[in-house]
C-alpha cells in the first residue's frame, strides 16, 4: 500500500499553534471554495467529467476544511464535569467523517467514469487544460499553506490529504487533456477520473485507519508497550508494572495508566514522579495515571 510518509511527523500542540492552524485552515477554505465553483463551471462548459470529478473532490476538500475548522474550535473548549478530557476527540471524529466522505465521492466518480467509457463524449480539450492548470496552482498554494500545521493535528492532516490527492488529480486532468489534444482519444477524460478516484482511496485509507485506532483507544503506532514497560520497571524501587494501557486522546496527546509494585524502600511519590518524567521524555506521554502497590501489602491510594 502507498505510504504518505512525506507528511509531517506528529508534534505536540500549543494554544498559539492551534490559533495559527485555525487561521491557515480558514484561508485554505476560502481559496478552495472559490476554485471549486470555478472548476465546476469549467467542467460543465467543456463537457469534461474529469474536471467535474475534480470539482467534486474540491467540494469534499471544502467540507473537510470546514469540518476541520469547526472541530479545531470545538477541541479548544475547556474540559467540563461531564467531559473531563475536553473535546479533543472532535478533531478525530471530523477526520473520520472526512475519510468516509472521500469514499462516497469515489463511488460517484467511478460510476460516471464507467458511463463515459461506454459512450465517450466530445470534450473541449483546451478549456479543460486551462482550467486544470489553474486548479493545480490553487492546490499547490493551499497545500503549502496548511502543510506546516499538519504535524500538530490529525484533523489538519486529513484536510491536507484531501488537497494532496486533489493536486494529483489535477495533474491527471492535465495529462488527459494533453492526450485528447494529441491523439483525439476522448476516453482519456474518463481514465483520468478513475485515476483521481484511486488516488482518493489510497490517500484516505490510512487516514480512516488512524482515526479508528484513536477512537478504539489502540496503542499509538510510534509506541512499543513492551519498551514502555521496560523503562518503567527500570526505575529504582519498581519491582513490576502491570495493567499497562496506552492510548491517544487526540493527535499529539497521549495518555497512560498502569499499576506499579514497589519494594517499599523508595517512596511511592518519588517513583511516580520519576516515571512521569521518563514517560514525557522518552515517549511524549504527558498524561499518566499510576497506581502504586507496595509488595506484600495492601494497595495504597492511587497517585496521579
Chain-wise SSE layout:
Layout: H1 15-46, H2 49-75, H3 89-118, H4 125-147, H5 154-183, H6 188-215, H7 225-233, E1 238-250, E2 253-262, H8 268-283, E3 285-294
Parallel strand pairs: 2-3
Antiparallel strand pairs: 1-2
Task: Please summarize what this structure is.
The chain is mainly α and 304 residues long. The chain has eight helices and three strands; from the N terminus they run H-H-H-H-H-H-H-E-E-H-E.
How would you describe what is shown here?
It contains eight helices and three strands, in the order αααααααββαβ. The chain is mainly alpha-helical and 304 residues long. A three-stranded mixed sheet has the order 1-2-3. The two termini are 41 Å apart. The chain is elongated. The model is unreliable at 1-16 (pLDDT under 50). Strand 1 (238-250) and strand 2 (253-262) form a beta hairpin.
How would you describe this structure in keywords?
mainly alpha, 3-stranded mixed sheet, 64% helix
Give the count of helical stretches.
8
Helix-strand makeup class: mainly alpha
Beta-strand residue percentage: 5-15%
Low-confidence segments, given as residue ranges, are: 1-16
Order of helices and strands: HHHHHHHEEHE
Overall 3D shape? elongated
* Strand adjacency order, main sheet: 1-2-3
β-strand number: 3
Over all CA atoms, what is the radius of gyration? 25 Å
Q: Give the rounded overall mean pLDDT.
A: 78
Percent of residues in helical segments? 55-70%
Amino acid at each position: 500500500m502507498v505510504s504518505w510518509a512525506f507528511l509531517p511527523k506528529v508534534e505536540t500542540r500549543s494554544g498559539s499553534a492551534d490559533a495559527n492552524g485555525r487561521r491557515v485552515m480558514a484561508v485554505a477554505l476560502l481559496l478552495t471554495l472559490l476554485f471549486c465553483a470555478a472548476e465546476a463551471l469549467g467542467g460543465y462548459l467543456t463537457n469534461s467529467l474529469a474536471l467535474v470529478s475534480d470539482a467534486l473532490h474540491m467540494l469534499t476538500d471544502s467540507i473537510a476544511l470546514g469540518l476541520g475548522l469547526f472541530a479545531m474550535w470545538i477541541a479548544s473548549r475547556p474540559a467540563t464535569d461531564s467531559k473531563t478530557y475536553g473535546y479533543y476527540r472532535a478533531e478525530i471524529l471530523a477526520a473520520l467523517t472526512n475519510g468516509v466522505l472521500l469514499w462516497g465521492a469515489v463511488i460517484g466518480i467511478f460510476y460516471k467514469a464507467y458511463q463515459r467509457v461506454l459512450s465517450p463524449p466530445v470534450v473541449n480539450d483546451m478549456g479543460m487544460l486551462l482550467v486544470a492548470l489553474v486548479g493545480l496552482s490553487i492546490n499547490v498554494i493551499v497545500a503549502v499553506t496548511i502543510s506546516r500545521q499538519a504535524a500538530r493535528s490529525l484533523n489538519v492532516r486529513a484536510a491536507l490529504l484531501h488537497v494532496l490527492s486533489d493536486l494529483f488529480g489535477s495533474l491527471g486532468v492535465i495529462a488527459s487533456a494533453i492526450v485528447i489534444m494529441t491523439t483525439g482519444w476522448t476516453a482519456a477524460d474518463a481514465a483520468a477520473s478513475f485515476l483521481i478516484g484511486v488516488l482518493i482511496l489510497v490517500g484516505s485509507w490510512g487516514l480512516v485507519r488512524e482515526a479508528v485506532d484513536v477512537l478504539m483507544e489502540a496503542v499509538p503506532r510510534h509506541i512499543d508497550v513492551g519498551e514502555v514497560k521496560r523503562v518503567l520497571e527500570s526505575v529504582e524501587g519498581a519491582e513490576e508494572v502491570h495493567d499497562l494501557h496506552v492510548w491517544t486522546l487526540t493527535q499529539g496527546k497521549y495518555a497512560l495508566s498502569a499499576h506499579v509494585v514497589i519494594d517499599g524502600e523508595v517512596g511511592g511519590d518519588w517513583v511516580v514522579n520519576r516515571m512521569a518524567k521518563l514517560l514525557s521524555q522518552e515517549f511524549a506521554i504527558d498524561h499518566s495515571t499510576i497506581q502504586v502497590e507496595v509488595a506484600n501489602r495492601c494497595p495504597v491510594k492511587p497517585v496521579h
